[in-house]
C-alpha cells in the first residue's frame, strides 16, 4: 500500500467503476418500454454513496481478489438497494417527495411506474447475477452462492422483514432489541451481504471469512447508528430542531433510546469491533479499516 | 400412457404436488415478521389454476424427466406469478378489491404490506431457485440457467414490461401488434419460461427444445386470447353486458380487435400450432396436448 494512499481517491475510483458498470449492465433508456427503463435508470443514477458496492469490492481486494470479477455482484446489490429506496419512498410507505434533493421516482414517473421500476430493478439484479457472460471467471457454484446470499439478505427474513417491522413500529415505543432487529435487517443484512459476497468471490479461507463477517456485522450496524446521529445533528444545525424530535415523530432511533452521547459510544464500540476483526489482514485491510472510520467518525 | 388417463386427474395430482411443495418451501406464517409471511401465504394459497407449474412439470415429464427435480422451479414460478398479481391489484395499478372472489392482498393487509409481500415473494423465488439443498440433483450450471430464464421473463423486457405497456395503453386505441406485445410479455413470457424450464431440467435435445419453445409460445398467447373471450362470454351471460364493453372500458382485448368469431379463429390457430409442435413426442406429449385443448376449448 503506497504511503500517499487516500481514502477519498480510493472511494472515487470504486464508485466510478461501479457507476460505469451499472451503465453497461442496465438496459438503455431507449429499450422498450422506454418509460420503464428511464425510471429504473433515474433512481440508480440519482447519486448515493455506493457504500454496498464499495464494501464488496474492498472485501474482495483485501483478499487479493480481482476487482473486475466482483463488479457484476457489486452492481446487482446496488440495483437491489435502489429498488428498496423507490418502494420505501412510495405514498403507501414513507411518502417521501424528495430524496437527495431530487423528486422521488413516483413524483416523476407516477406511482404505478415507480412500483414497476422497483420490481424490475430487483429482477434485473438476478438477471445480472445469473448472466454467465458478464463474469465468466466466476464458476456457476459460486454465482449460485452469491445469488442465494443476496436473495436471502434482501427477502422476508432480511431487508423486507426489517422494513415491515420498521413500519409496524412507527408511532410506538420500542425497545433496543426491536430497534436492533429493524436495523440489522433493514440495512445491516445487505451491508453484511456485500462483505460476504466480496469474501466469496475473493476466495476467503475460514479465518478470513469469520473476520470479514464480524467486520460486516459491526460496520453494518455502526452505519445505521451513525446515520441516526447525523439526522439529529443535521436537524439541530440546519432546521433548529431539538434532539428527540425524531422520537416525537414516532421514529425510533439510537439517540432516542440511548441519548446522543450513548449513541456515539455505541457507534465507537461497533467501529472498534470492526477494526479489531481486520487485524489478521495487516496493511491489506487499509481500505476496509478507513471505511469503518469514515462510516462512524462523520457522526462525531 | 394408460387408456384410462384423464386430464382432470393429471392436473389435480400436479396441482396437489405443487401446493404441498409451496407449503414446504415458503417460510411458515409464524416466521417473523409474522404479518409479512401471513400476507405472502395469503396470496400464494388463494387458489388459481397453477397453469405455470403444471406446464413446467408436464414439459419435463414429456422428456421423461423426474417430477421431483422440477418442483423447486415450479414453485418459484408460481411465487413470481403471485407477486405479480398482488402488485397488479394495488390501488395505483388496477385497483381491484377482489380476486377469485376473495379480498385482494392490500384490502386485507394494507397497501404497504401488500407491496412488501409482493417484493418478498419475488425475492423468495430466487432464494428457492438458488437453494442447492432443495434440488441437489440439478447442477449449479442448470440452476443458473433456470434463474436467468425466469428472471429475464419476469423483468423489464418480459412480464413487467408488458404490464407497463398495458397500463400505458389503457383508454387508448391500440393495434394488434401492440396487443400482442402486451400479451406475449405480460403473460406469454412467463408461460414460455415455464415450458423452457421444464425442457432444461428434463434435458431436452435441440429438436425437443425447439418443439417445446414453439408449443410454449403458441400456448401462452392462446391462453390470453381464450381469457379475453371468456371475459366477454362470462360478461354476457352473467352480467348481461354487451360484447365490446371491455373496449368501452378502455381495455384492449382480442375480441375487441378481431371480433368474437375472429378471436376464436385465432385461438384455434394458436392451439393447432401448439399441437403440431408436439408431434415429435408421440404419446408422451399427451398431457401437454390435452392442456392445449383445455386452454383453448373452454372459450368455444
TrEMBL record, chains A, B:
Pfam families: polyprenyl_synt. One of its GO terms (cellular component) is cytoplasm. Transmembrane segments: none annotated. This is Farnesyl-diphosphate synthase. GO terms for molecular function: metal ion binding; prenyltransferase activity. The keyword DNA repair does not apply. The keyword Transferase applies. CDD domains: Trans_IPPS_HT. GO terms for biological process: terpenoid biosynthetic process. PANTHER family: FARNESYL DIPHOSPHATE SYNTHASE. InterPro entries: Isoprenoid_synthase_dom_sf, Polyprenyl_synt, Polyprenyl_synt_CS, Prenyl_diphosphate_synthase. Its cofactor is Mg(2+). Keywords: Isoprene biosynthesis, Magnesium, Metal-binding, Transferase. SUPFAM superfamilies: Terpenoid synthases. Belongs to the FPP/GGPP synthase family.
Amino acid at each position: 500500500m503506497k504511503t500517499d494512499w487516500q481514502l477519498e481517491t480510493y472511494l472515487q475510483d470504486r464508485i466510478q467503476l461501479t457507476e460505469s458498470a451499472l451503465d453497461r449492465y442496465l438496459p438503455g433508456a431507449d429499450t422498450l418500454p422506454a418509460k420503464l427503463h428511464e425510471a429504473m435508470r433515474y433512481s440508480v443514477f440519482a447519486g448515493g454513496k455506493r457504500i454496498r458496492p464499495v464494501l464488496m469490492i474492498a472485501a474482495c481486494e483485501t483478499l487479493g481478489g480481482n476487482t473486475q470479477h466482483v463488479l457484476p455482484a457489486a452492481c446487482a446489490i446496488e440495483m437491489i438497494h435502489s429498488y428498496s429506496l423507490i418502494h420505501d419512498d412510495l405514498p403507501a410507505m414513507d411518502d417521501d417527495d424528495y430524496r437527495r434533493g431530487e423528486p422521488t421516482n413516483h413524483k416523476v414517473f407516477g406511482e404505478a411506474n415507480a412500483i414497476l421500476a422497483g420490481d424490475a430493478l430487483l429482477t434485473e439484479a438476478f438477471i445480472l447475477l445469473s448472466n454467465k457472460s458478464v463474469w465468466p471467471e466466476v464458476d456457476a457454484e459460486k454465482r449460485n452462492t452469491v445469488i442465494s446470499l443476496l436473495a436471502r439478505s434482501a427477502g422476508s427474513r432480511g431487508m423486507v422483514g426489517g422494513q415491515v417491522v420498521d413500519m409496524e413500529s412507527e408511532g410506538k415505543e420500542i425497545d433496543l432489541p426491536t430497534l436492533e432487529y429493524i436495523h440489522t435487517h433493514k440495512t445491516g443484512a445487505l451491508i453484511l451481504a456485500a462483505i460476504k459476497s466480496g469474501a466469496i468471490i475473493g476466495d476467503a479461507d475460514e479465518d478470513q471469512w469469520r473476520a470479514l463477517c464480524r467486520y460486516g456485522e459491526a460496520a453494518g450496524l455502526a452505519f445505521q447508528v451513525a446515520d441516526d446521529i447525523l439526522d439529529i445533528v443535521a436537524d439541530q444545525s440546519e432546521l433548529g430542531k431539538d434532539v428527540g424530535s425524531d422520537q416525537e415523530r414516532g421514529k425510533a432511533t439510537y439517540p432516542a433510546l440511548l441519548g446522543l452521547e450513548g449513541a456515539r459510544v455505541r457507534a465507537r464500540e461497533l467501529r472498534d469491533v470492526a477494526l479489531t476483526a481486520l487485524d489478521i489482514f495487516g496493511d491489506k485491510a487499509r481500505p476496509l479499516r478507513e471505511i469503518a472510520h469514515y462510516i462512524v467518525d462523520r457522526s462525531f
